[in-house]
Design goal:
The chain has two domains: 129 residues, Ribosomal Protein S5, domain 2 (2-Layer Sandwich); 57 residues, Alpha-Beta Plaits. Helices cover 33% and strands 37% of the residues. The chain is built from five helices and ten strands. Helix 2 crosses helix 3 and helix 4 packs antiparallel against helix 5. The protein starts with a strand and ends with a helix. Belongs to the IMPACT family. InterPro entries: Impact, Impact_N, Impact_N_sf, Ribosomal_Su5_D2-typ_SF. One of its GO terms (biological process) is regulation of translational initiation. It holds the Pfam family Impact_N.
């Protein structure tokens, strides 16, 4: 099972110019569609005098992936698709790339537009720090207070992250762990019930 994915850490900016048209590209780390929409809206407001604000995003991993590509008035598949192509070819997720175009007065044709949007998006990615992250799964476990030491030993041994905890007479702990190790963590915790 592949439980790793690549994403970007910082915001990267790219630039491309062709026949006086300027293409300003911005790559952002995003973790939700709402976050992506807010960023897109902010670029539309900031660059209100630009002709187009095209974008593509990919959010999530596995069967939870959400993707969208938008040409924002450019000829079909000449903007969003080439931007998305850069996201896919770099194997990135949790990323939004917006490319703002200032029209230079000369039509670039479909081939020229594809090259321009692809190149601007690639330049934005090139100015980002690409990182590998783990797909985490949450494991919730209920136990009695006397089992605390055993539970904490398993947590420490398996290097699980404590996401939430509630320690009263009956205790609950929510752990985050690499997806491929989640089942083993469940088994080790359940085994404590029989010790």
């Amino acid at each position: 099972m592949n439980d790793e994915y690549k994403t970007i850490e910082n915001t990267g900016e790219g630039y491309y110019t062709e026949k006086r048209s300027k293409f300003l590209a911005f790559a952002h780390h995003v973790e939700s569609v709402d976050e992506a929409k807010q960023i897109i809206d902010s670029y539309r407001k900031k660059y209100y005098d630009a002709r187009h604000c095209c974008y593509a995003y990919q959010i999530g991993v596995g069967d939870q992936v959400q993707v969208r590509a938008n040409d924002d008035g450019e000829p079909s598949s000449t903007a969003g698709k080439p931007i998305m192509g850069q996201i896919v070819s770099n194997e990135l997720t949790d990323i939004l790339i917006c490319v703002v175009r200032y029209y230079g007065g000369v039509n670039l044709g479909t081939g020229g537009l594809i090259v321009a949007y692809r190149t601007a998006a690639a330049d934005a990615i090139a100015h980002c720090s690409v990182v590998t992250r783990l797909v985490k799964e949450k494991v919730e476990f209920h136990f009695t207070y006397p089992m605390m030491n055993g539970v904490m030993k398993v947590v420490k041994d398996m290097k699980a992250d404590i996401v939430a905890q509630d320690f009263n007479i009956d205790c609950t702990i929510v752990l985050g762990i690499r997806k491929s190790e989640a089942e083993l963590l469940r088994q080790r915790l359940e085994h404590l019930n029989f010790e």
